[in-house]
Amino acid sequence: MERQYDLFERQTDGPSRWIDAADDLRQARKKLEHLVRTSTGVEYFVRDFCSGTVVAVAGHPHGAMSRPPMRAHAHRGAA
Q: Would you kindly state where each structural domain of the chain is located, as residue ranges?
């Protein structure tokens, strides 16, 4: 199966960094949750490979130590 979703780390000082890929949204969310649990103060997001839409965001921007719960975004066309 081709990859359908890409996971990125949001960089505060430049472009986002590609981390991993997933075959489906469920797998992408599991990987996203794992990334948030194993890092501190970083924000990650999942992008639909075909549409370019960001479909999930987790972690915390700006390097803060706290982590809010993962929030999912509706799949609504291009971001």
A: 5-72
